[in-house]
Amino acid sequence: MGAVVGLMLGVGLLLAWSSTWSHTPSDAAPGRVRTAWGDLAARAGMHAVSLPAFVGVCTGLAAVTAIVSLGTGTAVSVAVAFAAIVATAPLAYVRSRARRRGVELAQLWPDVVDDLTSAVRAGLTLPEAMIAMAERGPAPLRADMAVFAAEYRASGRFLESLAVWQEHLADPVADRLAATLRVATEVGGTDLGRMLRTLSDFLRTDQRTRGELEARQSWTVNGARLAVAAPWLVLALMSGRGTSAHAFDTAAGIGLLAGGAVISAVAYAAMLRIGRLPQDPRVLRVAR
């Protein structure tokens, strides 16, 4: 009884002390999470999926997995472990889709810059050149360029339309291109064609170098995935055997699962960090 009273007193003192803390970081954290999700969803082409809806999908998949696992006689601890793994599957899918789309767009951006250069040389203004890309640009990017066209027709303001287009794509290369066009609009001059050609050459060189490095290091990422998945596949096979599965409901079994999950997560993250090239940060994004 004394231990319970002491624990309650300690919790009360901790809560009283926490009321004096500054809440600025915690208030800013949800905004950072929403911003990160917005960028990820935009890169994946899933603009209509909100963060609450995505969290709901992850939670629903985890609940269904747990219910099905328990219904088949799987141990509670194993069912919880499988539910946690399945809950991360949507995030892995969105990241994979964003990565594939990023690779696809990286191959198209040099052509986009070349088309803009040709349009400017032909006498079109920058807004007209951008709008023309919605009809004559690379097919995978026409819908994204149409966002700029629609915004510009509605507002008539080039810089604001450019900012909307940047946030729609959430792509570092789009940020570079938008920054180049913004500087050309605000400062003026006759060097826009030279700037666009320099940007196009840089993008081609970067894309070629990155492609070679990713081709060489892809085996590292695939090996990491196989190494992490193997023990959990064995666990899935063992979960169908009653005596083996229910052994994980003991304290030692739960500890083994928890330790295995932590080791798998840390090892997978380390292998990805070692074997995957870093993504370009959006240093030229529009300030909100």
UniProtKB/TrEMBL annotation:
Domain Type II secretion system protein GspF: 114-238
Localization, UniProt: Cell membrane
Keywords of this entry: Cell membrane, Membrane, Transmembrane, Transmembrane helix
Topology within the bilayer: Multi-pass membrane protein
Transmembrane feature ranges: 61-94, 219-239, 251-272
Keyword Nuclease set for record: no
GO cellular component terms listed in the entry, alphabetical order: plasma membrane
Domain of life: Bacteria
Any one Pfam family match given in the protein's UniProt record, by short name: T2SSF
InterPro entries reported for this sequence: T2SS_GspF_dom
PANTHER family assigned to the protein according to its UniProt record, in alphabetical order: CONSERVED TRANSMEMBRANE PROTEIN-RELATED, INTEGRAL MEMBRANE PROTEIN-RELATED
Protein name: Type II secretion system protein F
Naturally occurring in which organism (per UniProt): Litorihabitans aurantiacus
